[in-house]
Amino acid sequence: MYYTVMKDTDIKIIIEDMRAAGCGSADTDRVMRMHEAGMDEEILLCLRKCRCSMIEDLHEKQRKIDCMDRLIRRAGNQADPANSYR
Length: 86
Known about the structure:
Blueprint: H1 8-20, H2 25-36, H3 40-79
């Protein structure tokens, strides 16, 4: 697999971007330790895992929003007598 060794300036930018994306200190610390250990290939895997976790959180929030939408529709139907026979 082809890859280049990350420079210290590159890793600083990656850490800043991770923080801006909402990654926790555990993830940023892990990436920094990987970089210091010369495990730059593994950093990409860690970033992908962080992204997957964010996607799972997004899907969970979407399920909750869908549930609220159903509740709102039900409450709206019960509050509106014209919709009571639907």
